[in-house]
Each structure stands twice: as structure tokens, then as C-alpha cells.
Amino acid sequence: MSFQDKVVLVTGGASGIGGATTRAFAKAGAKVAFTYATSRDEADAIVQEFAAEGVKGLALQADVTRPEAVTEVFARVERDLGPVDILFANAGGLLKRSRCVDTSLELWQQAIAINLTSTFLCCQAALRSMEPRRSGAIVTMSSLAAFDGGGFGAAHYAATKGAVATFTRSLAKEVGPLGIRVNGVAPGLIGTRFHDTFNTPEGRAAAVEKTPLRREGTPQDVADAVLYLASDHASYLAGEIMQINGGVGF
Fold it and tell me: How far apart are CA 244 and CA 67, in angstroms?
């Protein structure tokens, strides 16, 4: 797959799945911008890699739950690299586990902001540029939790990831006639800092045992799927939520 001269924006693109995808797009010839919240060292490492390989890229520290920050990100990308052709709306996460009965309204709203609002704002900004050009591809980040309810104490996270999946399908119907494809990925157990933080070795081992392929996924597994969905090879896919989980639930 080649993305020569395509302008790609990856939100949350400095580490984990986002970092793997940022690097994968760059290796495929794209001009890549990525946002990060706090991972400055990881962002700097990617920028240095880009410089060494002659890749044109851009790292932007931004809170993509804020409309003004998203507007600034897209303006910077367009000024420095060109209008965004491909968006991977990856930013999000689980702040902490909390039983529903103990979940504060503040935590609930924070989960909505980092997972759903950030996706909405970035898709909206991308479409303002893509619609006049009648071309573009968007990939969103859902989760296995959207389909199985997630782990213990993650109802707030699962709810937002389910909403991302529904938003993705709805948006695909809305902008497909304009030549813009919208799809999503829904990873399962991927060996990243997320599971280092919110899972246990025992929990991960039990999940692997239930996985038909008998292993954890890697960030590259997800990155490969994102690149496929964003490429011309997936030109007849729209509204698809690709589950990347080693066969769980099938």
C-alpha cells in the first residue's frame, strides 16, 4: 500500500497503536502529522526518526477534546503539510476503572469527552476540508468493549466506544455520497500500556487462553488494519467496524 504525497493526521499518535500507525503511514510514503497529549519524549523520538529518514512530518501537542485546539491542529497541518486526506481518530482511553454505582458524573463526562467528543470534533474538522474536495478517508477507534461490554468497572468506557462505532456507521452513510469513506477499528487485547495499566498478568493470560489465535495482538496488527481501511484496497468498504481481536466472539 502506498500513500505517497497523502497528508495523514493521527490523533494520539505518539505511542501504542497510534505510534505504530504514525510510523506505518510514514513508511508508506505519507506526510504525517500526529497529536499527543503528554508523551513529549515519545513524540520527539518519532520526529527524530522522521528527520533521519527524510520524512515530512509534524508533531502537535493538543487537547483534542477542545474545539479551539482541534481547529488549530487542522490549520497547522494544512499550512505545513497540506489539507488532510486521511484521518485516524485514535485519541482516547480509559481514565480509571469504576463500578457504575461509584462512577461520578465528572468521570462519565470525561469518558465521553476523550473518546466520543474528540472523535466527533476531529471528524467534523476533517470533513470541512474533505467535503469540498469530495475525497478522503476517516478511520475511527472503537473497541472490543463496544461489543462485549468491556471488563469490570469499564461501563463508562464501553458506552463511549459503542457510541463511536454507531457514529462511524452513521457518518459513513452521510458522507459516502460525497466520495468520503468512514470506517473504524475495534481492537481487543493489544499488548500496549493500556493493558499494562488497567489489566493484570492473570487477566491477560486468561484472555489469551480464550482467544482462538492464542496470543495478544500487537500495535502493528492494528496499524496494518488502519492502513488497509484508509487505502484504495478498501475502496468499497464504508461503515465497517473491523474487529481485531484474534477471533474472540466468533
Answer: 30
Between the CA of residue 90 and those of 60, 83, 93, what are the distances in Å?
14, 19, 9
Active site residue 236: no
Distance CA 161, CA 150 (A): 10
Tell me which residue of 37, 38, 34 sits closest to 21, measured CA to CA: 34
Set 36, 157, 228, 236: catalytic member: 157
At 239 the pLDDT is 98
22-32 pLDDT, tens digit per residue, is 999 999 999 99
Is the pLDDT reported for residue 199 higher than 80? no
158-166: which pairs have CB atoms within 8 A and are 24 or more residues apart?
Answer: 159/111, 160/92, 160/111, 160/112, 160/115, 160/116, 161/92, 161/115, 161/186, 163/112, 163/115, 163/116, 164/92, 164/115, 164/116, 164/119, 164/140, 165/140, 165/241
pLDDT attached to residue 108: 97
If you write DSSP's letter for every residue of 34-84 in order, what string do you get?
A: EEESS-HHHHHHHHHHHHHHT--EEEEE--TTSHHHHHHHHHHHHHHT-S-
Query: Which class does domain 7-243 fall in?
Result: alpha beta
- Binned at pLDDT 50, 70 and 90, residue 117 comes out as very high
Whole-angstrom Cα Rg for the chain: 17
